Backbone:
C-alpha cells in the first residue's frame, strides 16, 4: 500500500514538474517577444489607436516599463500553465474513473478551453473597444458648449491592469454562464422546476450582463435579452424532450 502511495506521489510530482517547465518555457518565450505581445494587445483596441495621431503611453517611474513587461510575461505564462495544469489533472484522474465519468470530465475540460477562447475573443473584439469608446466619450466635449474640457493620456501600467481585470471578469463570467447552461441542459427533473426558478434565472442574467458590460443601459438590455432567449430556447428543447419520452 505504501508503494502505491509513493507511485501516486511520484506521478503527481512528475506532472507538476512538467507544468513548471511549461511555465518556464512560456516565460522565456513571452519575455523574448514581450514587445510584440504588448503591440498585439494594444492593436486590438481601435478606440485607443484612433485617440491620437501617434498612439503612445506615458510612464512616471524609470522602472515602470520593465515591471509592466514583467507583469505581462507573468500573466501570459500563468494562463498557459493553468491550461497545462488542467490537462495534467485530467490525465492523472483518467485512470481511476469510469468511462462515463472520464467523458464528462473531458467534456468539462473542452468547455473550459472553448469558453476561454470565446471570452478572450469577446474581450478584445467587443468589450475593450466598446468600453473605451463609452468612457472616452466624456472627453469628446466642445469647448464652446462646455466649461471644462478633458484630455486623456494613458499610462502603461494602468492600461495593463485595466486589461487584466477585464480579462478575469470576462473569463469568470463566461465560465459561470457555461455552468448555468450545462445545468439547465442536464436538469433531470420535471419542467415545472425550471419554470419555478425562471425569475431567479432572469435576475442572474441581468446581474451577469451588468458585470460584463459598461454602465450603458442599451448594452445591458441587449446582453440580458440574448441570455433570456437562450434560456427560453433551452427550456423549449427540454419540453420537447420530455414530451417525446412520455409519449
Residues:
Amino acid at each position: 500500500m505504501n508503494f502505491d502511495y509513493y507511485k501516486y506521489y511520484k506521478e503527481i510530482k512528475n506532472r507538476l514538474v512538467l507544468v513548471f517547465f511549461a511555465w518556464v518555457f512560456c516565460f522565456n518565450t513571452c519575455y523574448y517577444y514581450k514587445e510584440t505581445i504588448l503591440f498585439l494587445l494594444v492593436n486590438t483596441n481601435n478606440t485607443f489607436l484612433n485617440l491620437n495621431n501617434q498612439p503612445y503611453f506615458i510612464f512616471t517611474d524609470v522602472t515602470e516599463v520593465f515591471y509592466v513587461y514583467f507583469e505581462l510575461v507573468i500573466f501570459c505564462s500563468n494562463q498557459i500553465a493553468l491550461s497545462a495544469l488542467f490537462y495534467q489533472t485530467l490525465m492523472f484522474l483518467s485512470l481511476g474513473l469510469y468511462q462515463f465519468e472520464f467523458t464528462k470530465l473531458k467534456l468539462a475540460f473542452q468547455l473550459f478551453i472553448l469558453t476561454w477562447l470565446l471570452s478572450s475573443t469577446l474581450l478584445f473584439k467587443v468589450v475593450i473597444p466598446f468600453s473605451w469608446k463609452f468612457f472616452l466619450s466624456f472627453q469628446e466635449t466642445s469647448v464652446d458648449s462646455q466649461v471644462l474640457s478633458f484630455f486623456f493620456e494613458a499610462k502603461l501600467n494602468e492600461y495593463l491592469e485595466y486589461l487584466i481585470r477585464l480579462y478575469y471578469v470576462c473569463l469568470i463570467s463566461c465560465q459561470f454562464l457555461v455552468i448555468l447552461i450545462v445545468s439547465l441542459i442536464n436538469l433531470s427533473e420535471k419542467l415545472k422546476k425550471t419554470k419555478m426558478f425562471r425569475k431567479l434565472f432572469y435576475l442572474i442574467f441581468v446581474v451577469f450582463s451588468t458585470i460584463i458590460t459598461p454602465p450603458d443601459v442599451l448594452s445591458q438590455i441587449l446582453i440580458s435579452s440574448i441570455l433570456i432567449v437562450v434560456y427560453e430556447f433551452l427550456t423549449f428543447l427540454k419540453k420537447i424532450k420530455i414530451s417525446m419520452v412520455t409519449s
Notes: The CA atoms of residues 23 and 164 lie 19 Å apart.
